[in-house]
Amino acid sequence: MSSKRSTGIVLGLALGLVATFAACGEDPEGPAGGDVAQLRGAVLLETGVGLPGATVELARDGTVARSDQTDGQGRYAIGVPEPGTWELRLRPPVGYALPPNAPGTISVDVAAGEVITMDLDAVHNLTVSVGAGTAASPDTVGGEPGVPVWVRLVGESTLVASGETGEQGFVPFALPPGVYDVGIDIPAGFSLNPKTPNPRRVELVEGVPQGVGFFLIRE
Predict the structure, then answer these.
(1) Which of 28, 29, 32, 193 is the most exposed place for a label (fewest CB within 10 A)?
(2) Going by DSSP bridges, is the β-strand pair 123-124/96-97 parallel, antiparallel, or unpaired?
(3) Residues 157 and 118 occupy one common structural domain
(4) pLDDT class for 36, splitting at 50, 70, 90?
(5) Within 10 A of 175 (CB to CB), how many other CB atoms are there?
């Protein structure tokens, strides 16, 4: 049983998939009965964590032949019924999306007896970034960690999500479609760049990732 690994590097929806293929070798696990090959791998978030509950589909000529839902570690495995060229599609669960400009369909050539490992990329549908500059250079910023971020539905007072920016000044959220106010609590020793409203309003549409940015000035 031959095994081939493809690691996808997403460049954007309009761009193709850049992939590297490892040399073929023996694999103890093979296709299930009735299938001639297997596609398997993991759906990985921008944080490097596997995404559970994503649907991966195998299709040809627009018709889905096989599908699988990722497990708790983001892993999937799909049997291939016959050799040839197939389409692999990823459908993230609510709150997640394909990366910006990522291909919605990946073309895969499959030979009988192959086990192809292909990891797929997904992202949270909302990413909040906080940068900080100085009074002398307010527009020259670097990511600011440890800034509290909160999210609430427009017209509501109850928070639906909250977190803190990480080392690079980013924090991701997975939220249902809707219109939200996104804000930050300004840390001691900082002021808000006057060019930045706080909170900021964002409309989340299913399957479309959004980014919201804030800019602070060190006092």
Answers:
(1) 28
(2) antiparallel
(3) no
(4) very high
(5) 20
